User: Fold these one by one.
Assistant:
Number 1:
Amino acid sequence: MRTSIATVSLSGSLSEKLTAAARAGFDAVEIFENDLLASPLTPEEIRARCADLGLGIDLYQPMRDMEAVPEEQFAANLRRARRKFELMRRLGADTVLVCSSVHPLAVDDDALAAEQLGHLADLAGEFGIRVAYEALAWGRHVSTYDHAWRIVRTADHPALGTCLDSFHILSRGSDPKGIEDIPGEKIFFLQLADAPLPAMDVLQWSRHHRCFPGQGGLDVTDLVRRVLRTGYDGPLSLEVFNDVHRQSEAGPTAVDAHRSLLVLQETVGVWTPPAAVVPTGVAFAELLTPDAAPVTALLGALGFTRTARHRSKPVDLWEQGEARLLVNTGPTGRRDGTGLAAIGLESPDPRGAARRAEALLAPVLPRRRAAEDAPLEAVAAPDGTELFFCATDRAQLPNWRADFAAVPHEPAGLGPQQGPGPAYAGAVRRIDHLALVQPWHQFDEAALFHRSVLGLHAQESVDVADPYGLMRSRAVTNTDGSVRIVLSVGAAPSDDTVHAQHLAFATDDVVAAARRFRDAGGRLLPIPANYYDDLAARFEFADGELETYRALGILYDRDAYGEFRHCYTRTVGRVFLELVQRDGYRGYGAQNAPVRLAAQHTVTAG
Amino acid sequence: MRTSIATVSLSGSLSEKLTAAARAGFDAVEIFENDLLASPLTPEEIRARCADLGLGIDLYQPMRDMEAVPEEQFAANLRRARRKFELMRRLGADTVLVCSSVHPLAVDDDALAAEQLGHLADLAGEFGIRVAYEALAWGRHVSTYDHAWRIVRTADHPALGTCLDSFHILSRGSDPKGIEDIPGEKIFFLQLADAPLPAMDVLQWSRHHRCFPGQGGLDVTDLVRRVLRTGYDGPLSLEVFNDVHRQSEAGPTAVDAHRSLLVLQETVGVWTPPAAVVPTGVAFAELLTPDAAPVTALLGALGFTRTARHRSKPVDLWEQGEARLLVNTGPTGRRDGTGLAAIGLESPDPRGAARRAEALLAPVLPRRRAAEDAPLEAVAAPDGTELFFCATDRAQLPNWRADFAAVPHEPAGLGPQQGPGPAYAGAVRRIDHLALVQPWHQFDEAALFHRSVLGLHAQESVDVADPYGLMRSRAVTNTDGSVRIVLSVGAAPSDDTVHAQHLAFATDDVVAAARRFRDAGGRLLPIPANYYDDLAARFEFADGELETYRALGILYDRDAYGEFRHCYTRTVGRVFLELVQRDGYRGYGAQNAPVRLAAQHTVTAG
């Protein structure tokens, strides 16, 4: 029989995946949409590459949330589908996978589903395309293959058939016998996958996935409160079977473990450490680099100005608006190349913040680096990043800026923007967020550390697909969002040259900022054209808006709170910079991260 | 409050765990029995180490399968308990954890459970020890904390209380409110662990854990058969979302993927490759080494004799019984140091075996290494091990031994044992099994390869705890057990210097074999004394038997089919050797693997 493989099943760039599939003897591929979006190849180039390799493109996938929706929504869906059918014509693919809807607006109405799928098939037919409708095991109203087939049969359209997927069918325990009642010519496609039976019974859960209190989802605190009410006066003892801890060094794990019990005791009220002092902003970020030139070239092009130099050390202060960067060319520590070494957190009470950190087992760093320096409170985060609790130009408190002497600088071009006053278009206002890559076994520890030591809130974890692996990331923030730290980690130890740290700068006008950067000689990360074709299918933009984003390499996202536009510089050492314009938007562009990561791989490889 | 941590929560040797716990500020530890068994420290030394570190030993754990069993079984349990109480006295630990039984003989009889726990508490009381009874979430009859407490209350014994574990309580969704009804003085211990809520819904299962057909637990074959009956003539297409594949190189993954579809097509009868030719024995194993001396010293001490040398290459043949080893000092390939490079499989039809391997995408190796060599069929396994399909001294077939010229050798000592005839006590009969460490992302691929290409049966996977991580291993065998290959893999990429390959030799008398080896100057892996104390508690031995094992470093296990005795040499490069005596026993001593692995770490570190 003809054999095929979905590109999502393999690692790497789309081009690598196609080559590997052809060499292994496959006759065809399914092109997974995200692989196309992240590829610098045009659809025509992908078509030609497949032809050269002797591979058919037997399926384009997936098209989601199409059917059984209100009329207005369906009209938008048809517009989106037309874009995708045009793309498929360029690719030379004649079958598209439509997954059963998971959309919150989808209704439980088979007749409507059949009618709308019929309309979709009409449109597909105009392009010579067949629609293969598949029941996702977690579809909102259609989750079994026989249900999907009933809808297809009702629609009774020559360009509409069903797609069967062994995982979706067998994972739900459906009886595959009913497949034999479907005419073979109406089965447009057959996707195969096996899976280990979920061995996640309570025994497996216990033996492999326990974690320290506060790092999981069980209400351990409530349980401990109840035990204490009985008069129990024995120890609180941790018994944690965890595959990750088994591979990690015992010392740091033990500290993480003990911190979890301290936090627990604080929460239940039997221990009172110094209260959390929540930081109110980012005073500075410090980059440690063996060669300042590449970093300062980027900063200069972004409109930063070197305003001061440390009185005793090779550290320069670069400023724009309230964004302050220290560029340190002193001896580098354990990290190679340019990296983010320290974060200055604006603190209402630096001494109090440090006392709490110390009580919660954070390693305290020497208060003065040199005799003449201002006494600064600092601790080390689990990943080694130095956290300074400090004050910027505030009365009664040691001022970290006092260690720096102003250097002559012209307000070159438009010059640095001091304070919150009116800015030129595209000026950097402040640091929006800092993204720190964690050692792969310290992700849970880092989240607990930032929550308990700094008093920040931890948001939900999100998974992000990288061409060469999965990343998980989790943001910790203060209430008003003036401190946002994104912790991320790879799925397993691996090459992390691309899993770089980054610094994001907030601007009110990212288009202007990107143009200024480009005009100043900066190069933004190039984003594939396919990404913009997809944006055009997903959103409606004002005339010329999308072309502007495409020309500059600006990415776009939207959530319930507003819009988000952002773009990236090239990577220097282990760091890259981002410009973000968030108009109410609360996230970090996770939707765009796979495209960004693939683009970074392309640049690195190229 | 007093804080404590179970040693199982941390990585490393017991000594490292204690140090890490003390440095992080814990007041006490729970000693996990396996950590003690694997430690070279005596109980008194552990006690002294804890005292030096300021750590109490607040719990010894676990004691299992104690209560609600038939009388005879309970008498044996009390004997076992007495041994453990003696051990606890040496440790200076005064509380022991007893988990609710999971034993198949345990009966659902609370009164009997209470009565027997009362007897156990009587015995404990004699030693000044308290028994803390805990409901395992997966206990056979007692799985909730309130049930365990009712039994403790019924027993009403001062030396019997309950142990609460937040995981066991909350993972079952029990209401912790009832805890407040237990008098605090009857809660002897509180174990804490959190856990992520099982996110393994079908969506997570699909997005992270799909695998290729034949590598999981779904009946994909049956589904495909039914689809084919409909007349479907489209492609078989793989759509596999898998975290491991995302990180692995695309080329080998694609080959593995395509092989899975070929095997599937063979199974459903639409493709007919050459039939599997199941190997009937191990013709030889080939060690590649930059320095033959350490390996040949081991072989000599084990009673092997160098019998022949390859006519054109620096390869020696060493023999004993039907065990044949090639020691190759030619240029080493991709591996560092001494490693297992090739396996000769005795094949009824070498050409047929190679044709099948080739049809299933195994890389075929050149048939002749040199012009004068016998034509040998060989392919590469996924981990790079060369597999030769060959014949030893069989008519009509090229004989691999023809490439070797006999060298003069005395039947030194007792000399090599040729053929199956009567042997001196402790002679090596043949290769019992070969254990190959797989690259961590190729475990599923390797199992499918050995099953489909060689026609071997795959047994269930087992998890084995190493002091620095978990290992998973899975045996593939032919029907009569004359070919046994154990595939193993670490939980994630890590230092694998200890996760070595090994070769196990079968003998009828491992005690005699171990003595001969020692008398010939060989050194066996030293096994901690604590292990033998535990054996004494678990099994009854004839007089002097256990002392013999202890003196030699022989490990012991038993299954439903018979007994198993085995011992290990030191590691050379990436390889160590094992002597096994299996009297009906079908496993590989997985029960003893943690002790063996810890002992290997100790030797490496020491």
Number 2:
Amino acid sequence: MAERSRGWARAVRGLLLDVSGVLYDSGAGGGVPIAGSAEAVRRIKASGLKLQLCTNETQATREDFVRKLRAMGFDISVAQVTAPAPAACRLLRERGLRPHLLVHDGLVPEFAEIDKTNPNCVVLGDAAENFTYANLNEAFRLLIGMEKPVLISLGKGRYYKETDGLKLDVGAYMKALEYACDIQAEVVGKPAKRFFESALAELGVPPEQAIMIGDDIVSDVGGAQQCGMRALQVRTGKYRPSDENHPEVKPDAYVNNLAEAVDIILQEL
Amino acid sequence: MAERSRGWARAVRGLLLDVSGVLYDSGAGGGVPIAGSAEAVRRIKASGLKLQLCTNETQATREDFVRKLRAMGFDISVAQVTAPAPAACRLLRERGLRPHLLVHDGLVPEFAEIDKTNPNCVVLGDAAENFTYANLNEAFRLLIGMEKPVLISLGKGRYYKETDGLKLDVGAYMKALEYACDIQAEVVGKPAKRFFESALAELGVPPEQAIMIGDDIVSDVGGAQQCGMRALQVRTGKYRPSDENHPEVKPDAYVNNLAEAVDIILQEL
């Protein structure tokens, strides 16, 4: 399909890449690179195209996340990662919000500079083992005690797969707190438009000259298209054949993997 | 208000009573009776009116629940309690469902006679301390692995109050699993119509001759009225003055407490 019509690959100046499912598959010991992806990242950089990673990762700081990617062979710097926690910190500062954090231990350092005394909002991430009955009740009590409860959710994923099985993602716990408090959370991360816009700003390229490449039909492809970007779905990671019949979202093209996407884009340069 | 128009109290043959917030307030050591309620129950029984308790209690078996009520001075038998777990057991048997239980330890004996091997549904109750990350992931994995996931929720309350603070109720966890699996739970308990209908069957009185008395404007009053019963809201338990401006539900009358309701009903007999 990608062979037939390559109009989508023209006039590109920058690429936004999802990470899990595009660069690597999460799994034992942190994950394994997807074949050809590290080489594809090197070719993007050598071509002069701008590159930014756009991830909903919230179990580690960007520093730790980049360390893991570099160990897998990806030539990436911290400034090239757009992630929900730094975006949430900007939002907290802009609005004078002091968060109570219900997040993974690995993410806490991202909020080191943020005033967390006398909280007036709750920030929810993929807290994993920190999703205890006591912690959920604590976050709930803080919210229900606010005159106007503010819940900021770092993503709204339903679930994800780890080597020991499927895990409920942050979106499920977001829904629990939304229902209990009769409120709507503010989502920071894909597919929020504002999050893509800050990734584009960091990329330094307007949406019509950028392509998003991801494995999630709704969060990556649909979200990027809403911002005026073109978007490709790779057939790696959480891609399922049924995605190709999605009732609402249609990617600009399908590619088998990141390497194939880069092949086509570089040919059109 | 109750003084002005007592038409609602005429032609009554049976009463359905909510328990927590009507008979007693939950709190330290299991709870304390609401003033006048034990005497009101005695007067109902002496009058010849039929009486059935209709509760969403799912932290204890009916036997343990009745033991607690009797210790507080309420002359109640197990057969006079309609509760979600026995209703769920009937539903499981009718449909050949084998549950995985995510419920409070105190409720497990209610399911002693039910085949729980090779589960083909999940039954969710107010599991309290059993709402762990591991247990929620386990319930989720079972559901998402089913061809057609069946989630049966014993109630759908948002939260409740205990002496050490507010707690998320079963409804919040139901919403988390609904979202993660993209399904709708089946609710057994108030305000489900079928649950009120089985309470009426146990009461042995048709809906137009029955009155529901509860403290929850939506679950007790709204649910009972949907079944053709009259319904009173007491100004005890979780009652809040703002309930009297509820946009959708209007009780047939307000009473200050169960004792006042019984005064009026017995005068009209």
